[in-house]
Structures are given as structure tokens and as C-alpha cells.
Amino acid sequence: MSLEDLLEQRYQVSSSDIDKALNYQKRFNGRLEQILVNMGSLSDDRLLSLYSDYLNLEILNLLDWENKEKVDIDDTAISYLLSKQWVPLKASSEDWMLAAKYPLDLEVNQFLTRKNIKFKVLLCSDSDIEVLGAKYQLKANVLEEADTALSGDEEERLKELATEAPTVNLLNSLISRALRQGASDMHLEPYEGRYRARFRVDGVLHEEETIAPRMQLPIVTRLKILSGMDIAEKRRPQDGKIEMRIANQDLDIRVSALPLNEGESIVMRFLRKDNVKYDMSVLGLSQDIETLIRRDIKVTSGVVLMTGPTGSGKTTTLYTFLNALNNNDVKIITLEDPVEYQLEGINQVQVNSDIGFNFASGLRSVVRQDPDIIMLGEIRDKETAQIALQSALTGHLVFSTVHTNDAASAYTRLLDLGVEEFLLNAALVSIVAQRLVRKVCPDCAEVHPEATQIIEKYNLSEIARKNDILNFSLMQGRGCESCSHTGYKGRAAIIEYLECDHEIKSMPKNADFISKAKQHNFELNRRTLFEDGLFKVIQGITTIEEVMRVAG
């Protein structure tokens, strides 16, 4: 099979993209597959698989070679091979085994042929080549020379390191893999003498890659250059933003750099605008809770609060509420820090504390714009809280968030900020506490082997009876390619809903308020966060282990 046919049939590259790449190749030379990578038609981290299929070569398993001794061949040969990103793995007098990312390199093949060496090539990624090459003393000497050069003209040397092909390819490969796995963010951090890459998928971090120590500085520098940070500043935190196109996706990446004892920790948050859907059905709300929330967001004035820790999906849920209300008859203004996703038809404002434009001052300006609906990113202080609540009393519907563990605690949190009790009772419509649980992967779901014991331990039969469910099965994910062998794919919200009705408003907001509010919710047959999680276990949406992790 030709390379063009392989690309089209097995790697889903369109024939039109292949034709464009071939035309470019005729005019400017270059490798067809690399041109397609530069076009964004082929992911860089699929090149190894492509070469393996095309050339019938094995892909190296790093664990088999990482701790083996360096090969005893002459320094000139090692120097040349390492400069070409080839690493000797094993060698006798005339029979060598080497690791390479691009096995068709004509110069290297001619070099080995001139030496009358028979050789076998194992395919290897950029990062694995760095790990394997680090064991050679010659490589260490090259590094020492590089460090010496940095002291002379540090900034220029940093820029040079950041633009070298291994650095560019490694970073692009990591980002492509993160996107393909559906990661929300990627963490690059020094850890126990090494540099590791971790992906957060469905809210849980997984270690994905170990990066050679010598690549730490080039990778960090490249990210700083791309995101507009100061590459010479290593003592204070910095923030930046990257706009790029990788694997046919337009991507905004929020980048944060934090100095640590062993180096700098970099966190990249991926914002994929084309993949975001703000629809109630996507949130995975239980039907009874969705009905109550839909009723609340249709009132003309009042405050609807979301509570939960960072990363619990509060902003996404509020965006969904706004999207449900968004039409030509209403004016909606949001005040956020930062504005992450642009919502069509909605006026979005980003606060900037550096110039004194914080939530409180911004909210005053927003109210003068005569909006019908206001979304306030977060209530952090007394002034912001009072303006938000007073705005609700003057005919605005206000959505906002506070950081508390459950719904009833939002009252005590606002009282601690100094807000008057009468203002809370007058303005609050409802409070929604939220967490996100991972959903069982639909492609490998199977009945939980300990279903009987779990049903008895957590009294799930009673919860099923209360919710008119006659038959149910507890599910778990076995683990498959689709879910990266985690057993989970996607997330759903578990909710604790507290309506600020007459009984809640009439309760004294003292030390007993939270327990009384929970008892009131229980009498109305409304679930706590944990109980809503158990309800989703009964429905086969998630597992008991996941509910215990998030809300246990």
C-alpha cells in the first residue's frame, strides 16, 4: 500500500489535503507526512504509528530499555547519531539496534552503510529519545556547554532552545494527546528529580509522560514565548494565553507559570469553543431538579446562587441557564474573571483588578446599563454581595456563585461577609450546590460485581422506592480504548437544591440553621449531594466509588 493510500484509508486524511500536501512537496520538497502535520491534517503523535504500518517496524517500549547501560561505541558515532535524534540501544561489531523517530533519514542510513553496519531500527517518540540519550556522558557534556552559554547571552540561548525541532515536536505531541483524550488541562511539573506531564481528564489527573530533565527549560521557555510571558522571569508567577490550531482544532490555552523549588510548574487549561454545548440535557440533571431550576430561572427578579469548589462546573451551569433565557427580548450582561467562552447575543465583561475594575465597581456600571439579567462570576466580599442582592430587589434576575460545601451554607457564608439577614431573605430565590461525577463509559459498561453488597450497605432499594424505580442495576466500566482504560467517560452533575421558600426565610440564621434547613429539605423529599449521587448510581450513570470520591 502506498503512503498516500495508507494516510487516506487508515488515518482518515482527506484526499484534498493529501493533494495540497503533494503540490507543496513538489514546489518546496519536504516529507509528505510532516507537511500534513504542519497543515493540521495529521496529528504529530500519530507519526510513529504511521511509520510502523508503512515500514512494518516495531515501536519501542521505553520500560525495556530505559535502565540499560549505554552502548560502548566510539564517541564520534554517538555524537553524530544523537545529533540526528537516533539513539544506540545495543551494538556488536557489525550489528546495531537503534531507536529513531524518523527511520528513513537518508544521511543516517548512508552513514551506517559506509561503516558496513547491519542495523535494526525501533520507532521512538521525541521524549523517549531524550530519556534514552540522557544516559550518555557525551550528552551530559553538551548540556554543560549549553548551560555555560546561557550565562553569556541567556535570553537568546533560551529562545534558540525553545525553537528547536525536538522542543516544538514534543510540546505539539503532548497537546495533541491531551486533546484526543478530552483533557481539560495539562500540568507540567518537576517531581522527584524528573519533569512529568499530567492530563486532567473528567476532573482526575493522570500521569501521561516523563520528560527528560534537559527538556524542562526548553519546554517552559517555549510556552512562555507563545503565551507572551517574560522568559527571563523565574521568581514570580505569571499568566498568559495562547491561540493556536492543532489537529484541526482552533484552541485557546490559558497558561499559568508558578515557581517551585525544583523549577517551574506550568498549567495549561484548554478552551475548545467548538465543543462546548450549553444545554440542560448535557448537564445530566435529574428530572425533578431540572423542573425546579427551570421554574426558578424564569422569575423576573431575585438571586439564584451556585455553590461548590473550584472545578465543580458552576460557571458552565450558569452559562447553561443564561443560554436557556437568551433571546432578543432580554438584555443579559455577565461580569467574569476571566471571560472563558464567548456566548452569542450576551454582553460579557472581564474585570481587571489591576486598574481597580473589580466585581463591585463593575457591577455598579453594569446596573446602569439597564440589563434584565446579570451574571456575576463570584461573590467574594460584602460590597459585591450587597450590590448583587440590592440589584435583585430593583427588578433584575441575578446569577452568581459562592464557595461553600452545600446549599444551606451559602446563607452563613454571606452572613459572615457582613450581609444583612433581611437582605438575604428578600432577594434569594434558590441555592444550588453542585459537584461533578464521572459517568460510566457506555462502551465497556457491565454489571458491578459487588452490586448486592453495595445495595444493602447504602440502602439503595429504599432510595429507588422513593423515586418510583422498580428495577435497577449497578454498573461499572471495565476499561477500554474509548475511555483510556479508566472505565469512565464524560461527567454529570449531582445537585443539592434548596428553595428559599417561606419556611427557610422565617428560620433564624443562627448556629442551628444549616441542620434545620437540611431537615426541611428532607421533609420535601429533596436529596442531599450524596443522595443525588446515590440516585445516579441506581440509574447506572455513575458508580458508588465515584460518588464517595466526590461527595462521600
From TrEMBL:
InterPro entries, alphabetized: AAA+_ATPase, P-loop_NTPase, T2SS/T4SS_dom, T2SS_E_N_sf
Keyword set, alphabetical order: ATP-binding, Nucleotide-binding
GO molecular function: ATP binding; ATP hydrolysis activity
GO cellular component, one term: plasma membrane
PROSITE patterns reported for this sequence: T2SP_E
Domain named Bacterial type II secretion system protein E: residues: 367-381
Family membership noted in the UniProt record: Belongs to the GSP E family.
PANTHER family registered for this protein in UniProt: SLL1921 PROTEIN (PTHR30258:SF3), TYPE II SECRETION SYSTEM PROTEIN GSPE-RELATED (PTHR30258)
Name of the featured protein: Type II/IV secretion system protein
Source organism per UniProt: Thalassotalea euphylliae
